[in-house]
Each structure stands twice: as structure tokens, then as C-alpha cells.
Amino acid sequence: MTYARPLAHKLVPAAAALAAALVLSACTPATSTTENSADDGTPVTGGTLVYASGDAEPSCLDPHVGGNYPQALVASQYLETLYTKDAEGKLIPWLAEDSTVSEDGLTRSVKIRDGISFTDGTALDAAAVKANFEHLLDPNTASSTGYLALGKIASMTAVDARTLELKLKTPDNSLLESFSMPWVAIESPTALKRSQEENCAAPVGTGAFKIASWKKQEAVNLVRNEGYVRPVASSTHEGPAYLDAITWRFIPDAATRYAALQSGEVQVIDNAQPDAIATATKTATLKHLDAPRPGASNRIELNSSKAPFNDPKTREAFVHAVNVNASIDSLFFGTAKRSYSPLSSVEPLAYSDDSLFDYDPAKAAELLDAAGWTERDTEGYRIKDGQRFSLTFPVSTSQSIPAEQSIFEQMQATAKDSGIEIKINLLDLSSWYGDLAKNNYNLVSAPYTKVGPSVLSILFHSDSTIPAPSGYFANHSQVKNPALDALLTTAGSTKDEAERKDLYTKAQKLVLEGYYLLPLYDQQNHFLYSDKLKNVGATTAVASPLFFDAWLSN
Amino acid sequence: MRQLFRVLAAVVLLFFILAAIAPNLLAPFDPLAIDPAAAFSSPSAGHVLGTDESGRDIYSRIIHGARPSLLIGAMATAIGLGIALVLGTIAGFGGRWLDFGIGRILEVLFALPGLLLALVFIALAGPGVTTTVIAVGITAAPGYARIIRGQILTLRSSPMVEAATVLGRSRFHVLRVHILPNALAPIGVLATLGLGQAILWAASLSFLGLGSPPPTPEWGAMLSAGRTYLSLAWWMTFFPGMAIVLVAAAATVLGRSTKFGGVR
């Protein structure tokens, strides 16, 4: 944790000053940074923001359970995390005040901020944080994202009211990054004691808003937390939020969602379509927030655990048989940039190699011939030992936008010229999970958001082929390589930042050159909003927007 | 005027039937061939009805889409009529209690909107082309069954059936020789009328993503894909929609004119 500790130290005085300022109810904290309020006028309190999400409605509003991006988006409004990132992308403490790690890296001590309460009145202290970690690590919670993020914790003790001491199985230099994710957000321990069903319906946090009601299939209704104390600043004001309430709706159809924004029925939409973004940027009344997600890039994973992709030559042939760039150019209207890395471009340690992924059918043909796929059947597909070169590609309709599905269709058409059959199955989320669990896929595109390069361990370490308590495993390419495992393990535990970078670079090289994945672009995270909504732009560490500072003009 | 409509309808239907039988005669392009550089081209001399998001020729896709679209419609109508024939015959010929029972079941089915019935079936059986065909067939069946029952009831009290009964013919003989052949005559008309409706329903289900998988050029699926880009490329939605409207209208016009033309 060499890179985060000095930063944390630097911020302690500032944070302490802020805490004092809040207690004295002073007006302007010295540490506040402004996003884009310059020409937005004077903030007005009141009004209900209607947010329309294109994601599937979560079945549980507690992001500890399972742990996906739709949950993070909504939970960012009512739950907060121990750490977060500032506007410059630096990791800063939030509900925590500071954290130190022992010389051997096996003991981490987290100082919890004082004077903060959950919206049910419970006070935030070390025991509350401990209860949250225990909740996440409890198999009954069925957490996947948060569970993996805290996997290195062996035991924990609340030393005093404000100090939590964590004993680690192995050193983990990504722990503070993990603490900044909504899937490891801190909830009221009193509320966590309720049944999972109750807690899923209305988790209780320290956020600027709290859950008033949840009408399933319709909306999550959030109201302002009147007792809100902003513990750390990257905001333009303090005290409660400006907005009275947020109505969090789910409108899965992209065109309907955009139409709702145009008509003024909603003020913010997520999962904006590329063509809508292109139109909206020319519309004076609409604004665009582009917030690429950290962690993995958006990529297609090649399942190396079974034929035909258990032969590296076939994987290499496949990436040369599809023309991704032509598709991105025609379908994304300049809103997405091609990626050649396993990591998001917002990750400082991302390593790219664009020389590996060129569209080259001749090379694909050569490789397929060399791999023994020499014959063709009547439909023109290559065959070997009577088996067609056929790839099953389950696509989750709720985790991919239409433009993405069009890319897949175009890949299907281009790959056919090389004698490769791609069978696209458009599935709902649970059938899609089912296909993954049954290993019934050759290609799959799954988003994975995590703060920091340690996402590489989750995606490519052989341990990640073993399902989490929720049944999900993230190593979809099913790469099992002892050398890679060793690289990732050392990269995740070293205290030397230069070594960390070097090892993660090597690991990325290995998976790219092994053709375990076909990177497409950053995980797209485009929001369009009405110009009536001011002061939008603040996000959490996972790039989900925060509406604490936002206000509606009349 | 009616004659003109009839000729027009026949021409439209024949065109699409030809398209279904021999699409390569009419379509200038491969319906699956992509050309990303030419994506979202508006109608022009090169692509008369424009191109879609992958640069595929819309006209060629509509022509190639005739087969799946018409086939789904025709098969669904056949299934609907088959079910209806069995139910209608039993109701019309099986006596009072069977008639009463089947009548009530049909009324319950009538109470549900057609598409909802199809959706319930798909929810139970899972999406896919086969399921869509059966779902639409089941949805269409109650309407046909009632007409067939009425036809059979009329025939039962006709002089020829009375004569046959007096002559001591068995019930089965009467049904086979006198009733069914005469009851079947209007079914041709019903089928033509129903075809349009079935194509419409099948397209609706494909539109909802419950029919043909990509990249099949099915009209409903094309409509659905185009809807995303409605503000950008109206032709992606408009022309497949027109194809559905034309076929459904043509089938209906032909069906009605045959009826008015006096099949007995």
C-alpha cells in the first residue's frame, strides 16, 4: 500500500479540519472542489430527480448481495464507502479517516471517522465496519464482488470504537482500492441484522439519500437524508443534498429511455446509445457525462477450457478473423475508442498491444490450416474430425446495448468468411448465468468493474475458475497458468509500486499474447441528462454518478 | 374498384410468395453480408430501401425475410385451424354437454387478448421459432373453432343430414361424408383471412425478441432492430413494417373478396 499511505496521511489534517468545520457548521470547506458549477447559477433546494436506468432492475438493493453494476449505480445514492476517489482519480479516505499497514503487510489498521450516523440512527464505528465485512464474507450473503474483494482477510478485531484491525492471509496491496467500491459499502449493522429479504428491500447507509420505498418493476423512491454530514469533500456544498428526492426508474428499452429524456419525463438516463449520444451532443438542452468504468475493459473472452479454443492457434485465428474496428467505427459514432488492453483506460497500470489484434483473414486461414481445421462443410464452415468450427456465444441482453449486439452480429458475418460459425444466443440474465455455470459457451462478454489492476487476478487467476458463493466465477477464459498465477499473486502483495507495475504489465502481456481475450473498448458508461439538472459530474470510485451536489433549476 | 383491389392484393401476395420460394431471383444482395462502411445509408440507387446498422441491404433482407415470415404465418394458421377443427367438430357434433364444456373453454380463451395468450405460452415453453408458431396457432384457434362449430350446427339440421340419419347411417358416416366436407369449404376463406393476422402476431412476437434469432432477416425482428435507430434511420423500421402491412392487408382483401364472391 505504499502509494496510498502517504496520500492518506496528507489528507488527515484536511479531513480533520473539515470535520471540525462541519461541527461548527461553517459554510465553505477549504478542500471543496467544483466540477462545473461556474455558469450554473445559484443552487435551488427542492424537486425530484427522475433517473431512468437501462439496466435490469436489481433483485436486491444491497450491493453486498451478488454485487453488480446496476446495484452500484443505485446504491451509490444511499450507501458510502470507506475510501473513494477524488476528481483527479486519487484514492482518498471517506468513511475511513486513515489506514496503516504493518511492515510485513499482514496487518492493516483502519481508522474510522467519528461523528457519522446511519439513517436509522445507528452510529458508525469500528464494530459497524466489522459487521459489514462479516456480512460480506458470510457465504449466506451470497456476495460475489465484495466477497472476492475482501478475500484476503483472515480475521478482524475492533481494537477500539474507531480502530479496526485486519489480519490478512497474504499481503494485499489493493485493499484500499477495494474499500472504495460500492460492493463493499458500509451499511447499518442494526439493519444488517434483519433478514436478507428485508435488508435487500431497504438497505440503510450513511448516504445523501435514503430509501423511502421500492415498488418493484416500477421505481425505487429515494428521499433526502436530512441528517447528512458530508465526511469528505469533493463537493461544492455541505449539509443535506439539494434534491428532495430521486425516483429511480427502470426503462430497459434504449429508444424509450431516450424519448423519456427528450420529453422531460426523466432528467437523467444511463446506458445511452451511441446514436443518441451523437444526437444529444448537438442538442442544446441535453448534456453528456462520459464516465468509463474502472477495472476490466469491455472484452470478449475465449473459453480455453474446451474445443476448439483449447488450441491457442484457434484463439489467435479467431481474433484475426473478426473486424472489430470497422464495427466500432460504424456503430459507435465516435463515442467509444478501441481498446487493446485487458484493463480500462482509466487504470494507470493498463498495458496495451495493438499489434496483436489486427483483422487479417489470411493469417486466420493459415493458423486454422495449421491447427488441422482444413476441410470445409457444405455451408462453408471449417471442420476437423467431423466437427464444425462452431462457437456458442451467449449474450445477456440486459448487459449489452443494441450497438454491442450489432458488433457481435457483424463478427458473426465476418467470421463466416473464415469458416468460423458463431451462434449468438440472446438470453435474459439468469439463463445467461446458467450457460456460464454449465460451461456452455465458447465466447462470452461479461463486464467486470473493480477499482485497480487487481481485477486481473479476478479475471485470470486459476482460483477464479472456482465459483464464488453466488455461483459466479469471473475467469471466463478459464486460463489456468501457474506462471501467470505466480505473477498475479506477487503483483497483488508486493509493497514496491514499481514491481507491482512491472508484474501486472507482464501478466497483461501474457493474457493478451495467449489470445484469451479480444478487447473491444472501455466499459461504456454514458449518461445523458437535461440541462435543467445542474452540477452533475461527481462520481464514485467506480464511476457511478452521485447526485449530492446536483440541483434542478426551474 | 373491388376488382382492382383484388388484383392488387393478388399481385402483392404473389410477389411475396415468389420471394419466399426463390428469394435470390428478386434480391440483389446477400441478406447477411455486412458492410460496416455502408451502415445507415438512406435509400438510394445502390440500396433502394437503404441499409441497416451493419450495412446490410434492407430490400434484400425483406425479400429473404418473406420465407420465415410467411412460413411462420402459414404454419401458425394451419395449427390454429387444426386445433379449431377438432374442437369445433366435437362441440358441434358431440352433443349438448361437450358443446357446453368446449363453449365455456373457448369463452375463457376469448377473454384473454390474443397476444397475451401467445406470451403466456411462450413464457411456459421458452422462446424460439417453433414456439412462436405454436403460440400463434393456439391464439388463433378459438376464433376458428367457433365458426366451425356454427357451420357444423347449421349442417346438422340440414335436409341431407336428416335424410342420412333417417336412412340409418352411423353418426361417424354422417360426419365424414356429409358434414366435414361441407364444413371445410369456408375454411379456405378463413385461412386466407387468418394468414394476415397470424403474420402480424408472429411479427409482434419477433419484435419482442421471442422469435427468430439474429441475424435471420425476419420482418418483426428487423422492425425491432430498426426501432433503436428510428430517429437516425427511419427506413430500417418503415420498410419491414410496410412489408408486414402489405402482406397482412393483401391476405385480408383476398380472403374477404372470396367470401363476398360467394363460396357455398
From TrEMBL, chain A:
SUPFAM superfamilies per UniProt: Periplasmic binding protein-like II (SSF53850)
Domain (Solute-binding protein family) ranges: 90-449
GO molecular function, a single term: peptide transmembrane transporter activity
InterPro entries in the record: Peptide/Ni-bd, SBP_5, SBP_5_dom
Transmembrane segments: none
Family: Belongs to the bacterial solute-binding protein 5 family.
Name by which UniProt lists this protein: Peptide ABC transporter substrate-binding protein
Organism: Arthrobacter psychrolactophilus
From TrEMBL, chain B:
InterPro entries: BP-dependent_transpt_permease (IPR050366), MetI-like (IPR000515), MetI-like_sf (IPR035906)
CDD domains referenced in this protein's UniProt entry, alphabetically: TM_PBP2 (cd06261)
Alphabetical keyword list: Cell membrane, Membrane, Transmembrane, Transmembrane helix, Transport
One biological process term in Gene Ontology: transmembrane transport
Subcellular location: Cell membrane
Coiled coil: none
Main location: membrane
Superkingdom, taxonomy of origin: Bacteria
Signal sequence extent: none
Membrane topology (UniProt): Multi-pass membrane protein
Residues annotated as transmembrane: 70-93, 105-125, 131-148, 179-212, 232-254
GO (cellular component) term, any one: plasma membrane
Family: Belongs to the binding-protein-dependent transport system permease family.
This protein's name: Peptide ABC transporter permease
